[in-house]
Amino acid sequence: TTHRKKIIAGNWKMNGSLQANAALLQALAAGLQVAAPACAVIVAAPAVYLAQIQALVAGTPIALAAQDVSAHDAGAYTGEVSAAMLAEFGASHALAGHSERRQYHGETDAAVAAKAAAALAGGITPIVCVGETLQEREQGQTAAVVARQLAAVIDLLGARTRDIVVAYEPVWAIGTGRTATPEQAQQVHAALREQLQHADAQDVCILYGGSMNAANAAQLLAQPDIDGGLVGGASLKAQDFLQIVAAAR
Ligand code: PEP
């Protein structure tokens, strides 16, 4: 009994090829035609494939996301891709601050917030990723870490916070096959919801990510504050991803 429409977003990470993308999207589109999704369905693809995928998803319910977005509008930022550029190629969303970007590319809370702001300014909905490491969880810092990560975004965006999507992705659950229990996830989602509520953004969708699969999705998605999933590995297999989509209603 929520008015928040669920979202299932696949994060392909640095995977794919022209041939593999076409095969995967054709299988997804076919599956979604047989069983129309009750949720929004998004795929986050490497930026170079956006043009290909824009054409392939036309006329399907599949929306397109980038995996990253520049904090800058334009200029001397070699290698970066702006929100306006992503929008030109059909992206409606972009991940911001995925843990792999924070970990391997040194993205700070402030940098992630700047990316979220630039995305919104360029007409792209940022999917802001937050989550604690295993060490932080074991030290009892989970609530403080995710609150700090989200606060950086709320502080910069202010009233525009209501236009973002949040993804809670415990780092220890990403790509490990070790998923958070529905109770563990719900606890963090409820805290994030409360923080969003204070920013007058209680209707923001909060996705769970971290080894979500066809077997565990339904239980996670049944939690009151889990509004969808951000799916890595299982998003590369059409049947698995379709089963997760079917579990979101
Ligand atoms: C992710 O990349 O955001 C993710 C959650 O990956 P996985 O589902 O493979 O854990």
3D structure, described in words:
It catalyses: D-glyceraldehyde 3-phosphate = dihydroxyacetone phosphate. Involved in the gluconeogenesis. Catalyzes stereospecifically the conversion of dihydroxyacetone phosphate (DHAP) to D-glyceraldehyde-3-phosphate (G3P). The protein is α/β, with parallel strands linked by helices and 249 residues long. Helices cover 41% and strands 16% of the residues. The chain has a single domain, classed as TIM Barrel (Alpha-Beta Barrel). It is built from 10 helices and 8 strands. The chain is globular and about 45 Å long. Bound molecules: phosphoenolpyruvate. Phosphoenolpyruvate binds at residues 11, 13, 169, 174-175, 209-212, 230-234. Residues 11, 13, 169, 174-175, 209-212, 230-234 line the site of phosphoenolpyruvate.
Topology:
Elements: E1 7-11, H1 18-34, E2 40-45, H2 50-57, E3 62-66, H3 83-88, E4 91-96, H4 99-104, H5 109-121, E5 125-130, H6 134-138, H7 142-157, E6 165-168, H8 182-198, E7 206-209, H9 217-221, E8 228-231, H10 238-247
Parallel strand pairs: 1-2, 1-8, 2-3, 3-4, 4-5, 5-6, 6-7, 7-8
Bound molecules: phosphoenolpyruvate.
Phosphoenolpyruvate is lined by residues 11, 13, 169, 174-175, 209-212, 230-234.
